[in-house]
Write a structure and sequence with these properties.
Structural class: alpha/beta
Number of helices: 15
Radius of gyration: 24 Å
Oligomer: single chain
Strand content: 15-25%
Shape: globular
Helix content: 40-55%
Number of strands: 19
Amino acid sequence: MGKSWKGTKEDVKGRIMHLRLFYDWPALKSLIGICPGSSGDSFKLNDLFNLLDMHGPAGFGVRAGTRHARTEQFFDARRLAGAANALKMLLGTLFYIDYQYCLREKSDVLAQYLGFAKLLGQRILKQGHQLAEHNIKLDTPKFYEGDVAFVSLNYDPIALWTQYLANRELNNDKKFSVKNVPLTSFHDAGHVIPSRRINGQAVWPWYPMNEAAAQRLNEAEPGASRVRLTKFLFPHGCLCWRECPDCGKLSSYYGDEWKIESDSLFLPPPLSAFEKKSCPNRIEGTESEQRQAGEIDARACLHCGTLSYAHNTQMVMQSSFKSSPPSFIEEIQRDLRAVAMKAEHIIFMGYSLPLDDVSYRAFFAARCQRFKTQSLRVCCTIVGWDGEHQSWFGPKDLKSGEAWFKENGTIKAAIDIFGEDNVRFFGGGAPGVFLEDGVVSEKALERLLTWSED
């Protein structure tokens, strides 16, 4: 800690006590010890989420063992909150370290995802040009809403970041237009969350696009740029979001520079050993002072200026106990339901439709039932990884009766919801699903997005 905090021994001691107020590491270790499988190799993080979400919000505590094998301690709701903060901090640290590893060792894979984002952006802009050619009014949802929406049940913003970069490049090139004015592509996050400006000297909020703004821009006077939107929703929160402890509003903090190799995309854990770059010169005032002193996770709220820290990161744990989420998360989840209720083709990439995801399974099933009453169908594509079956398998293949299809829980869960005639599977995972001979391919992208029974 002495290396991570400048000052006297008393200052270091004060910093340690300050961190202990928010991150209760001893409580977290004790709670892990009473989870099933904690003494062997069968421990599941979901059990820890369940334990915290079952007792914490209800205000009840838990009895658990301590580091002394024969003693037991009661951890009240306050300490459970500290354990939850410690768990969030550890998860954020793992994501932070993994991304640094990807930048060093897997830059080629990140480049493939960026290529995917560029192809997707071009597709969205081409569609906009075609819609305008067919005289679709620019201020109607049919024009400004893209036909692809993303939902990330993870906490990391890498996929969104690649699409931010791709959109910026495409929008700056101005190769696409409608009615002799530039056509641009942006993202709608389901909730207006301002971010700090990227690569700019200004520190005031940079607001994202949404449906209301897109409609206004598209009905503006001649000469103004026209806009298309892609939904990108984080119904469980994002590691780049901070909830202000004072005003309660959200702010987002992405990379400090417009490139995929931006090592500041993930906010660092609260120890300066993780921060390799000093605070940007444009950041002034209390935030700059605290970051230079060692509180490298300090970020000023973009609404009221209050400092937020790692424990203010908004993450909804994936547990079986679904307590009421914060208002902004609920707003995003409602947007997700609206998007799902309009979807005709749902693609799962790395998502297994687990039994404890009751709400998601329920509204997917409701969507399919609604389509049945309209004599239509909802199709489902599963992108997963199976080392022995890395190609495409259509509905006829999945109905063939081969044992490995029946043993795949995701395929079975999808068939139960969407029907055996409406599910196909790709076993090569991502990014393989949008690659052809190792290169990002428009043909592969269309095969992913366009339903086919082959």
